[in-house]
Amino acid sequence: MKQYNILFLCTHNSARSVLGEALASTHQSGLFVGYSAGSTPGTSVNPFAAELTKEMGYDQSKLRSKSWDEYGLPDAPKMDFIVTVCDNAAGEVCPVWPGNPATAHWGFPDPSQVEGSDEEKRKAFKDVMIGLKKRIELLASMPLEKLDSMSLKEIHTKA
Known about the structure:
By secondary structure, the protein is of the alpha/beta class. The chain has helices at residues 16-25, 47-56, 87-91, 118-140, 149-158; strands at 4-9, 32-37, 81-84, 102-105. α3 links the parallel β3 (81-84) and β4.
C-alpha cells in the first residue's frame, strides 16, 4: 500500500501543525506519514499539544518545532499534500515544494491563545484535534491517487 506524505504548516509549529502530524501518522488506515513545520518555528512544542500526541501513541522523540525550510532541502521527504492550518501561514509566501504537491488551507483558531484554566486550554486543543481528525478521515476516504488541490480544499467545507 502506498503511503502519502502530508506536511502541516503553521507559523510557530508548536500546536495545530504538530497535532496534524501526529494524527496523520497514527491514522488507523496507515495511509499517511505526517510532518509539520512553521515559517518562524518556536523553541518547543506546546505542552498541551504534546500531551494529546502522547495519548495518540505518537512517538514523542519526533516532536520538535521545526522550520519549513527543512522540507525544501534536496534530501527531504517528497510531500504529496501540504496543508496550512493557521491563517497566518496560509497568507505567507511558502517555499516552492518539490514534486508539485496538492495544497489546501484547513484553518483552525490558535488553541495556544486561549486564556483560562488548564481544562479550558485542554478543551481548545482537543477541539482543534477533533477538527483535524475529521478532515484527515475525509482525506483517507478519497481516491488519493487522483486528488488535486481543489479536491483537497473541498475537505475543509465538508468537515
